[in-house]
């Protein structure tokens, strides 16, 4: 939502808090509506939504749509009942759409769209649009406590150890991209999978475990800065409990080293 805009002027969000009668009445009034995928599927199946009167559908987070998702089911019903209606999909994570073999084609087929447009932020049209309303950024930072800083350093050392082992155990991958700095970002998962996907069936169990360990460590680093100490400790205990339930030979090395320390 945009700051300073009256809620009355914003499209209503149709979710499970609306009764069936309220939804039917709001559909018949027309206009732009924000509808959750589950409610949209239910109302289309029960014919509460007059699909013939719908001009088009806008799909957010298109990179998350799969062939078995509620969004895909709703779009199939919409296309069957409304041949002339438009479908537009938006995504701010183009890298996710490119992940895997033929991912773009599958997503476009699922969304019933034929054209793919990529609009980078440095595009002139996008730049002019963003320049109209420059954000006022106020940055506030709270320093970590001594113990939190020590935990952060330990997590970084564990990530460095995992990345080093991942590089040394997989000579066929591009080691220049497997760095601790890259491992701090979610895009690192896509980088690793893009390189390991062709040989994923040949990779060892240890390599797959390292990829999962890096995801866990990155999440711990993120939660360390956002959770309070009690909540973080409870989450950390669940991680250790899950690792303790595994066979000693399958437990993450960073967990073993942490417990020894």
Structure described in brief:
With 261 residues, the protein is mainly α.
Structural topology:
Elements: E1 13-14, H1 20-29, E2 34-35, H2 37-45, E3 56-59, H3 70-81, E4 86-89, H4 94-97, H5 103-111, H6 124-132, H7 146-169, H8 180-183, H9 187-196, H10 205-226, H11 229-244, H12 253-260
Parallel strand pairs: 1-2, 3-4
Name some characteristics of this structure.
two-stranded parallel ribbon; 4 strands; 5% strand; mainly alpha; 12 helices; single chain; 261 residues
What would your notes on this structure say?
With 261 residues, the chain is mostly helical. Helix content is 52%, strand content 5%. It is built from twelve helices and four strands, in the order βαβαβαβααααααααα. A two-stranded parallel sheet has the order 1-2. Helix 3 links the parallel strand 3 and strand 4. Helix 2 crosses helix 3 and helix 7 runs antiparallel to helix 10. The longest helix has 24 residues. It is globular. The model has no long low-confidence stretch (mean pLDDT 83).
């Amino acid at each position: 939502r945009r700051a300073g805009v009256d809620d009355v002027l914003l499209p209503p969000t149709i979710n499970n808090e609306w009764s069936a009668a309220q939804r039917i009445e709001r559909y018949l009034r027309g206009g732009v509506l924000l509808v959750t995928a589950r409610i949209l599927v239910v109302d289309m199946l029960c014919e509460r939504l007059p699909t013939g009167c719908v001009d088009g559908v806008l799909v957010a987070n298109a990179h998350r749509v799969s062939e078995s998702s509620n969004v895909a089911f709703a779009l199939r019903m919409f296309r069957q009942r409304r041949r002339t209606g438009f479908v537009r999909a938006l995504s701010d994570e183009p890298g996710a759409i490119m992940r895997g073999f033929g991912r773009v084609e599958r997503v476009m087929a699922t969304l019933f769209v034929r054209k793919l447009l990529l609009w980078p932020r440095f595009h002139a049209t996008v730049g002019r649009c963003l320049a109209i309303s420059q954000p006022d950024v106020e940055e506030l930072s709270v320093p970590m406590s001594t113990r939190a800083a020590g935990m952060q350093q330990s997590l970084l050392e564990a990530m460095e150890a995992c990345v080093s082992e991942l590089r040394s155990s997989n000579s066929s991958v591009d080691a220049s991209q497997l760095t601790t700095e890259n491992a701090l970002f979610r895009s690192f998962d896509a980088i690793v999978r893009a390189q390991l996907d062709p040989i994923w069936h040949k990779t060892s169990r240890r390599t797959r475990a390292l990829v999962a360990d890096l995801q866990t460590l990155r999440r711990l680093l993120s939660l360390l800065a956002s959770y309070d100490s009690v909540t973080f400790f409870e989450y950390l205990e669940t991680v250790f409990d899950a690792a303790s339930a595994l066979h000693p030979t399958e437990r993450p090395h960073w967990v073993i080293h942490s417990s020894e320390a």
